[in-house]
Amino acid sequence: MTWILASGSPRRRELLGRIGVRFEVLTAHTSEDTEQRDPAQAVQELALHKARAVRELRPEGRIIAADTVVTVDGDILGKPRDASENLEMLRRLAGREHVVYTGVAVLAGAREISGFEATAVRFRPLSEAELRWYAATGEGLDKAGGYGIQERGMLLVEGITGDYFNVMGLPMVRLLALCRALDLPLVEDLDLPEKGQP
Ligand SMILES: Cc1cn([C@H]2C[C@H](O)[C@@H](COP(=O)(O)OP(=O)(O)OP(=O)(O)O)O2)c(=O)[nH]c1=O
């Protein structure tokens, strides 16, 4: 059975592909706004919105969606609007720790489940020249918090506590647990019932 990834994120596609999940990509437009100020609730709500919008197109589909934000000083940072906002975000993150939240939603027809993961990321102190260099790469423009840990952004990161893949946009072990809670195999040869088992 093929999964539907309700996400345009190339990172999420890459991660699912790396573990051998059979899936297609299908996205539907949803608002990225939420009234939720609690980041763990907000990312789950947004992931559920993305997944439900795709369920309108494929009511019987098995759907995976996710949403990632960065939190610092009680503020939630999404993707920067432009290069100058990206630079501002990086200035806020330099030389300290922030927390990345990713919410994941899994839908199978009318059944739904969601969860989240939080990872603390510590940036090293960065000079103004380094901040400007990174912002000018444009790499952070389509990423929450304005950086990508898996690309040149790795040069900004001193250390992390928690799931690395959560920072990239899809916490894989959390996703596996959510699929198992719905009794659905994420990777078929991992979760197929053993032969001879009832
Ligand atoms: C912090 C961080 C975020 N990101 C990315 C993951 C997400 O793709 C993106 C956060 O934006 P999202 O709104 O979560 O996702 P998206 O707009 O890319 O895709 P879609 O809504 O269609 O699912 O930031 C990284 O790739 N690396 C990082 O280090």
Automatic annotation (TrEMBL):
Keywords: Cytoplasm, Hydrolase, Nucleotide metabolism. GO terms for biological process: nucleotide metabolic process. It is found in: Cytoplasm. One of its GO terms (molecular function) is nucleoside triphosphate diphosphatase activity. Its EC number is 3.6.1.9. The active site is at 67 (proton acceptor). It is an enzyme of class 3 (hydrolase). InterPro entries: ITPase-like_fam, Maf-like. The record marks 11, 68, 150 as: Important for substrate specificity. Pfam families: Maf. The keyword rRNA processing does not apply. Its cofactor is a divalent metal cation. One of its GO terms (cellular component) is cytoplasm. It catalyses: UTP + H2O = UMP + diphosphate + H(+); dTTP + H2O = dTMP + diphosphate + H(+). Belongs to the Maf family. YhdE subfamily. PANTHER family: BIFUNCTIONAL DTTP/UTP PYROPHOSPHATASE/METHYLTRANSFERASE PROTEIN-RELATED, BIFUNCTIONAL DTTP_UTP PYROPHOSPHATASE_METHYLTRANSFERASE PROTEIN-RELATED. Nucleoside triphosphate pyrophosphatase that hydrolyzes dTTP and UTP. May have a dual role in cell division arrest and in preventing the incorporation of modified nucleotides into cellular nucleic acids. This is dTTP/UTP pyrophosphatase.
